[in-house]
Amino acid sequence: MTSNRRPATPDSDRTSVPQRVEDAGDLVRLVRRVWEDKAIGLISGHYAHNTPVHLPDAELYGREALVARTLRTLATFPDVRLHSDEVIAGSDAEGLHTSHRLTVSGHHLGHALYGAPTGRRVHWRSITQRRVQGGRVVEEWSVHNELAVVRQLGLDEWAVARAHVQADAEAGTRPLDAGVGEVVRGTGQDAPPNPTDSAPRLPDALPGWIAAVVWNARRLDLAHACYAPDATVRVPGYRRLTGPEGLARYVLEWLAAFPDGAMHVEHVSSAEHGRGVLVAARWTFLGTHTGAGLYGPPTGRRVRIAGISHYDVVAGRIRREDMVWNELALLRQLCVPSTP
């Protein structure tokens, strides 16, 4: 994949959104115009009419569904501001792929989400990936740490999760299918692979190796093979982990709650920068909540967690990882709607 890293676009350039999306800079300008300037109608001109949008707890079909969701969010946080932290972009036979990491802030001034306005200022991290063909966005994946928003608003996170589940049940909205039966970590009945203690040399191969070896083969002792001793790993909840040991403790927390859990990497792209390579990986975690720990007593419910990670790889080692996924979407999967 031919890759490049585009810096955040200056404010002075954001009004000049071309008719066709040709590169990552065009998308950065488009996003700022839609969200900060409320030019929401630009979505219709820059997204294909049947664009699928993949969210942690919903599948949207078509640009009109995306417009409706954007309107709800902007009605809740009308003064939203975006800080473009990082864009990783590259092209292949399927088109232009971009992975855009943002910090978003705004005040809770509307009723559309989270109840009566509190006036509180909140901020959250998000990563959105887009695939562009023929000058238009034809597919999108987006994750953000929604639980951070709920906590900053002073709301009870489990009450919010239960209310969302109940509202969906009453509206007849079916939750995303997390599957049934055994969670597959290897191939068929085979044991997980027996890894060596050497991580792959190519940065693009690191996310798959981490998923297969550290997570699925439960070789937490081998995290040192790909993470620098002083690596920073930022995860939801505004937690900052340090080095392979910090990552290993985080994986242990997850696997204690979801003992059959498996991590699957779905797409990887990369871009060279001055001292190394930036890597973006989209992944899915499947597991059954049969262990106590992070999310309370076991519920026995199967969960599906969609996330995206950005890695900064220098000299073959990960120096920084930014992992974003939606914890509130996980809580919703652990709740059961009440029956009349």
UniProtKB/TrEMBL annotation:
Pfam families: SnoaL (PF07366). This is Steroid delta-isomerase-like uncharacterized protein. Coiled coil: none annotated. Keywords: Isomerase. GO terms for biological process: polyketide metabolic process. InterPro entries: Cyclase_SnoaL-like (IPR009959), NTF2-like_dom_sf (IPR032710). Residues 1-20 are annotated as: Disordered. GO terms for molecular function: isomerase activity.
